[in-house]
Amino acid sequence: EKGAYEFFMLKEIDEQPGVIRGLEQTYLAEDGSVKLADDMMNALNQADRLYIVAAGTSYNAGLVGKSIFEKLAGVPTEVHIASEFGYNMPLLSDKPLFIFLTQSGETADSREVLSKVNQLGYESLTITNVPNSTLSREATYTMLLNAGPEIAVASTKAYTAQIAAETILAKGLGMLKQTAAAADFETGFELTKAANAIQSLVDQKDVVEGLAQKYLGTTRNAFYIGRGIDYQTAIEASLKLKEVSYVQTEGFASGELKHGTISLIEENTPVIAIITDPKTAALTRSNEQEVISRGASVINIVAEELATAEDQIVLPEVHPLLTPLAAIIPAQLLAYYTSKERGYDVDKPRNLAKSVTVE
Ligand code: F6R
C-alpha cells in the first residue's frame, strides 16, 4: 500500500535504510560473521572466477559487485548483460560460478542463460527478491533480498539491496579465503553506516526536488559522470533518470567525455558529477571545468571529505566500496522529482514493464 505517498517509487526509496538493516539481521551473526549455507559458500570458494549475469538495474548492481568481490574476496569477477551472454558466451575459466542478480527472478534473458549454464553442468546462485521465482528454483543456490515487494517499475530498493547482499557474500567468501581485506571489513558496522547515510539523504528531499526543478525540468538531455566506482553509480543514475523522466541521459566515464561526447554539451546541458574517490576527485573536477567552459550547468554529488561549499549534494561518509549505496540516493530522487515535475506517471513509465519475460 502507498499510504500517504503519491507514488510507490518514493515509498521504495524511503524504505532503503530498513531493507539494508533487514539484510544485516538475516545474514549477519552477533559476532559479525556471515550466516550463509555452508554448501553454497564452499561452491563459491571452489570457483576460480565469478560470472555475474543480469539485466538493467540488476546488471548495474553487478558492476558494483565486481569491485566488491575482487577487493574483499580477491576473486576475479566478470559482469555480463544476460541478453548478450546467452548467445555470445566468452571463454569460460576452469571453474566458473554463475551469480544471477534479478529482482523479479523471472527475466527471460537471465533465464535463458541459466538454462544454458545448467546444460553445461555448472553451479549457480540466484540473488533475488522473489522466493520461488523461476531463477531461484532453477539455480543451485538462492540468496533472498527480503526487500518487500517492489511495485514501481523503476527499481530502487532492489539495487541497494543487491549491493548489500553482494557485500555480505563477498565478506563471507573473503573470510574463507582468509583475505586481509575481508578480515578488516566490519560488515555490520559498514552497512549500518551506509543505512544511516541513506536515511540522512532521504531526509534532504527538498534540496534534490529544488535541483530537479531548476536544472532538469525542461532539458532534452543530461549527463552523469564519474570515475571508477563513481562511474558505476553514474550508469545506474542515468538509467533511473532516463526511464522515468524521458530525458536522454548517459552515464559516462569522466575522462572519456573529451574523447568525443563533449561535442554534445550545449548552453545549460546538465552534467551531474559523482565524486567520492580521493584518487580521482581532482581529475573529475577538471573534467567539469571542461564542460562548464562549453556552457554546461553542473550539479555535484560529493563525499563529505571531498566537498566544497559550492557542491550542491554532500554524501555522509561511508566505506569506499559502499559509496554507490549513498551516491545513488540523490540520483533516484532527482529522477523521481524530474518525472513528477514533468507530470508523468512516475510508477509506470511509458513502454516499460516491471518484469520482462520476453527475450
Ligand atoms: C530498471 C529496471 C529494469 C530491471 C531489469 C531486470 O529500473 O527495473 O532495468 O532491473 O529489467 O529485472 P530483474 O532484476 O527483475 O531481473
From TrEMBL:
Which terms are listed as keywords in the entry?
Aminotransferase, Cytoplasm, Glutamine amidotransferase, Repeat, Transferase
Gene Ontology MF annotations: transaminase activity
- State what protein this is by name: Glutamine--fructose-6-phosphate aminotransferase [isomerizing]
Q: Which organism is it from?
A: Ligilactobacillus pabuli
EC category: transferase
Where's it mainly located? cytoplasm
Task: State its Enzyme Commission number(s).
Answer: 2.6.1.16
Q: How does it assemble?
A: Homodimer.
Give the catalytic activity.
D-fructose 6-phosphate + L-glutamine = D-glucosamine 6-phosphate + L-glutamate
Gene name as annotated = glmS
Show where the SIS domain sits.
40-179, 211-349
Cite the active-site annotation.
Answer: 354
Function noted in UniProt: Catalyzes the first step in hexosamine metabolism, converting fructose-6P into glucosamine-6P using glutamine as a nitrogen source.
Q: Where in the cell does this protein reside?
A: Cytoplasm
